[in-house]
Amino acid sequence: MARYIGPVCKQCRREGEKLFLKGARCFSPKCAFEQRGFAPGMHGRTSQGRGERESDYSRQLRAKQRARRVYGILERQFRRYFHDAQRRRGLTGLNLLQTLELRLDNVVFRMGLAESRAQARQLVNHSHFLVNDIRADIPSMLLKPGDKLTLREGSKKLEHFKQLPELAEKRQCAVWLDRDVKAISGRVLRLPERNEIDGSLTEQLIVEYYSR
Fold first, then answer.
1. pTM for this one?
2. Is 19 in the same domain as 76?
3. H and E: helices and strands count for the chain
4. How many separate domains does the chain show?
5. Same domain, 108 and 119
6. Which one-letter DSSP state was computed for residue 24?
7. Confidence of residue 53 (pLDDT cuts 50, 70, 90)
8. In this structure, are residues 149 and 130 in contact, taking their beta carbons and an 8 Å threshold?
9. What is the DSSP letter of 45?
10. What's the distance, CA 122 to chain centroid?
């Protein structure tokens, strides 16, 4: 299973904004973006403030890269999601974002059961969750409305999950999901609407990028 294993703080610096890829650390003074907000590389600092006009291609590329990095997906899989979204009825951009939101690792994160998508991915990889009472250890598994997520019985005695209900109470749960914090479980109620997905993502630019 392919995944990005490089320094994630460089991804925030490349996009010029915080992507909150490391959970609580992103809100602390240790955040690398706070210390070095310029783009990585030897020309990163000197390229700031030049006022150069950004090309259409550059804006499309940055929108696509930002979405990939937020959800932790590599190019090949992201492109496949786009082509699948294209074949379905409705707006391609919204179809794409809904697909990304329905990934199992993202659902765990959106329920507040992990402080970042990277942590959610690790929890799924370690087979801590069941989907419809069947073990699920593939982060890219796509859920659908009505699917139920529960914690595996053997995981409940682990110290991390004993403390999780108290931590999860402080985290927001997406409105298109339902969760039971004490039982560490939840359900997908419906597909997310556009205003319930990250507003900083520009799906139209992503569609333009792949439609060139």
1. 0.80
2. yes
3. 9, 5
4. 2
5. yes
6. G
7. confident
8. yes
9. T
10. 13
Residues 163, 169: Cα–Cα separation, whole Å? 11
Q: How far apart are CA 99 and CA 93, in angstroms?
A: 10
113 & 92 share domain? no
C-beta separation of 179 from 111 below 8 A: yes
Q: What domain range is 129 assigned to?
A: 103-188
Please state which of the ranges 47-51, 145-149, 199-203 shows the lowest mean pLDDT: 47-51
How high is the pLDDT of residue 13? 59
pLDDT of residue 75: 96
CB 13 within 8 A of CB 34: no
Radius of gyration of the chain (CA): 18
Which single residue is written with the structure tokens 């703080």?
9
Each residue of 77-99: pLDDT tens digit?
999 999 999 999 999 999 999 99
Specify if 4 maps to a domain: no
